[in-house]
Structures are given as C-alpha cells and as structure tokens.
C-alpha cells in the first residue's frame, strides 16, 4: 500500500470479535477507524473493549485525523500493539497519548512478524531510500539463458504467475537498457484480478532506447523514468522521450554509467519511491551489489540444466577472490512453487 504501511485492527470484548478493519487506500480511513465503523455498523457496543493493531496508532493529523484520538473518544479499555511506528511524526506519541487517557497499552506483541510485514515502510521511513529487491530465475546449474541467449522459459508458468505478484507489491521495477534491447518487455503487471502496474525505471546511460519499443509506446499509460548521465548530448532524443510522457532522471557519471547511489537517493527523496523490484540482467545485478544497494533477493530455481561455458549467469561483474568476502544470504525461506524452488533471502554485506 505504498507509501503507507499495511495495518489491520481487530476489536474484541468478552472473547467476541466486534469489528475488524484494515487500511484500504492511501488518504482514506486507517485500520482502527474502519474497525470501529465495522463494529458500529453491526450495532456492537465497543466501550471498554480491546483493540488489537499491528502498528502503533497515529497521533497526528495527516490525510486523516489521529487514530489515537478516536480510540480515546470511543472509551476503549485496552490497546494491544504489534510494533511502534518509526515515523518521527508518530514514534511513541500515539502510545503516550493513550496512556495519558488511562488506557492500558500492551506493546511489541509479535514485533518481529509485524516489522517484517512492513519492511518496506520501515526501511523507507528510516533511510529515505527505496527498499531494493533483486529477482531472477535460473537453472539448477546457475544459468539465466542458454549459450545463444534464449531464456523463455526457464521456470514454470506457476512460478511466472507468482513472480508477477511482486510487480504489484513493489512501487517500481528497474531494468538496464540491454534488457530492453534484447527482450523488448513492457514491464507491466499481468495479474488478472486487480492488477497494479509498477513505475518503470530504465537505466540507459547513452539513451540507446528505441522510441518504438514497448516501453516508449506505453509510457503515457504507465509512469516511466529513464535514468541517464548528465550531458549536453542527445538533447533531441531527450525531448522526444519527454513528448512520449517519459521523465528523464540525470545523474553524475560513474565509470561512464549512471551513478547508482545518486539514483537511489533521487528515487527515494525526490520521487518518493519506497521500493524497487530489480529484474535486470547480470551486469545491473553486479553493479548494484558492488554498491551494496540490494536489500533482498527473490530467486526462482528450475530443475533444468543448460550447461555451456559462455551461458549467462545471474551475476557478472568482477567477482571476488576470497570466499570469506562473499555476500551472504540470511534470514530466508525456501518453498516449492510447482516444480520449481523459490528462495526469499536478505543480503548481508561484509
């Protein structure tokens, strides 16, 4: 629910659920308010009841009035909170207000689970940088394409459908220009029920993108950024791209490429993008890993062998010499999706 956290609330009294609610849309009622309205619509008396909520109730006026005030007004007896809000506008103030109103507050119930539920929100609030998620599919022998570059399809249809859930979950999707040239993708979300297209970010240092590509031809329908190097060159190309509805982001050059650290700062601070799904090739993955910019990895492994000394692998770049210097995958899980394996891990850098 970018840029807001995922929040749900349940109202209970005498071991009976009186109302439930969640934050449905940015700028609309928060979870606590929807739970209160749900209870009242059912003619349930919520005075002296307990409300369970996974995130600290807000105490400030934003798009909606403070939820802490509504809890006090409706004379709740107890509030059980999963975790505190890192937003400096809230950060303990909601709890303080509730305690001052003599409402019992229980904090940090299932805190780890609640924080993981809103890992994007907490990361963005605390760093002002987007949560960066690398996704790729490979064979059991670590190939993302055959020796002649064919990659359709490595994984099963079920895995590909599963992967599109992440295009809906995260705010933006990022690829390099080579992916655009080789595959001519649209980078949209193809979930049948309630699809939500991510913002598209194309790294194109030399503005090689074809104006007739699927990205350019759909840029008035789907928000699109092209990140390139600051330059007085390609002015006409920039103008043509902007006429198609594409916004150009310019960064300093680093090794004749887009400065990735500068780009992520712009995406977070200026474009308010809280999360990015990276579906690039091995070069982009390696560049982002070198800058320690990837926070999480989503990996699909198919029970297939491509072989081939020159077949592409998920990560290229310079590599490391000493195994002790490897980037580690931690706190993860592995599950079966059809015939494939799906790995979801966080990255730990040295």
TrEMBL record:
Cofactor stoichiometry and binding remark: Binds 1 zinc ion.
Recorded catalytic activity of this chain's protein: 5-amino-6-(5-phospho-D-ribitylamino)uracil + NADP(+) = 5-amino-6-(5-phospho-D-ribosylamino)uracil + NADPH + H(+); 2,5-diamino-6-hydroxy-4-(5-phosphoribosylamino)-pyrimidine + H2O + H(+) = 5-amino-6-(5-phospho-D-ribosylamino)uracil + NH4(+)
UniProt-listed Gene3D superfamilies: Cytidine Deaminase, domain 2 (3.40.140.10), Dihydrofolate Reductase, subunit A (3.40.430.10)
Pathway involvement of the protein, from the record: Cofactor biosynthesis; riboflavin biosynthesis; 5-amino-6-(D-ribitylamino)uracil from GTP: step 3/4; Cofactor biosynthesis; riboflavin biosynthesis; 5-amino-6-(D-ribitylamino)uracil from GTP: step 2/4
Keywords carried by this UniProt record: Hydrolase, Metal-binding, Multifunctional enzyme, NADP, Oxidoreductase, Riboflavin biosynthesis, Zinc
Cofactor (UniProt): Zn(2+)
InterPro entries: APOBEC/CMP_deaminase_Zn-bd, CMP_dCMP_dom, Cytidine_deaminase-like, DHFR-like_dom_sf, Eubact_RibD, RibD_C, RibDG_C, Riboflavin_Biosynth_HTPR
The protein's Enzyme Commission number: 3.5.4.26, 1.1.1.193
Residue span(s) of domain CMP/dCMP-type deaminase: 1-106
Cell membrane listed as a keyword: no
Molecular function via GO: 5-amino-6-(5-phosphoribosylamino)uracil reductase activity; diaminohydroxyphosphoribosylaminopyrimidine deaminase activity
Magnesium listed as a keyword: no
PANTHER family recorded: 2,5-DIAMINO-6-RIBOSYLAMINO-4(3H)-PYRIMIDINONE 5'-PHOSPHATE REDUCTASE, DIHYDROFOLATE REDUCTASE FAMILY PROTEIN (AFU_ORTHOLOGUE AFUA_8G06820)
Similarity field: In the C-terminal section; belongs to the HTP reductase family. In the N-terminal section; belongs to the cytidine and deoxycytidylate deaminase family.
Reported function: Converts 2,5-diamino-6-(ribosylamino)-4(3h)-pyrimidinone 5'-phosphate into 5-amino-6-(ribosylamino)-2,4(1h,3h)-pyrimidinedione 5'-phosphate.
Protein name, entry field: Riboflavin biosynthesis protein RibD
């Amino acid at each position: 629910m970018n840029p807001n956290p995922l929040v749900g609330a349940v109202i209970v009294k005498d071991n009976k659920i009186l109302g439930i609610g969640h934050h449905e849309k940015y700028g609309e009622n928060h979870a606590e308010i929807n739970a209160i309205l749900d209870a009242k619509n059912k003619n349930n008396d919520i005075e002296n009841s307990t409300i369970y909520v996974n995130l600290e109730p807000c105490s400030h006026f934003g798009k909606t009035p403070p939820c802490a005030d509504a809890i006090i007004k409706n004379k709740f007896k107890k509030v059980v909170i999963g975790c505190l809000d890192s937003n400096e506008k809230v950060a303990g103030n909601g709890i303080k207000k509730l305690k001052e109103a003599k409402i019992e507050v229980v904090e940090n119930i299932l805190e780890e689970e609640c924080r993981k539920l809103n890992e994007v929100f907490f990361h963005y609030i605390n760093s002002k940088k987007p949560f960066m998620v690398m996704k790729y599919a490979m064979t059991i022998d670590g190939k993302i394409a055959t020796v002649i570059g064919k990659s359709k399809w490595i994984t099963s249809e079920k895995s590909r459908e599963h992967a599109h859930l992440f295009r809906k979950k995260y705010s933006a999707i990022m690829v390099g220009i080579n992916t655009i040239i080789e595959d001519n993708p649209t980078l949209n979300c193809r979930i049948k029920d309630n699809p939500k297209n991510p913002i598209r970010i194309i790294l194109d240092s030399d503005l090689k993108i074809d104006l007739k590509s699927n990205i350019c031809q759909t840029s008035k329908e789907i928000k699109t950024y092209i990140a390139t190097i600051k330059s007085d060159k390609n002015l006409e190309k920039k103008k043509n791209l902007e006429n198609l509805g594409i916004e150009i982001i310019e960064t300093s050059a680093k090794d004749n490429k887009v400065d990735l650290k500068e780009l992520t700062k712009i995406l977070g601070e200026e474009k308010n993008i809280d999360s990015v799904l990276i579906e690039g090739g091995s070069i982009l993955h390696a560049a982002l890993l070198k800058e320690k910019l990837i926070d999480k990895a989503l990996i699909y492994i198919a029970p297939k062998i491509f072989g081939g000394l020159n077949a592409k692998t998920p990560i290229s770049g310079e590599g490391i010499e000493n195994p002790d210097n490897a980037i580690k995958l931690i706190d993860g899980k592995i599950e079966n999706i059809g015939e494939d394996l799906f790995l979801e891990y966080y990255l730990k850098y040295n």
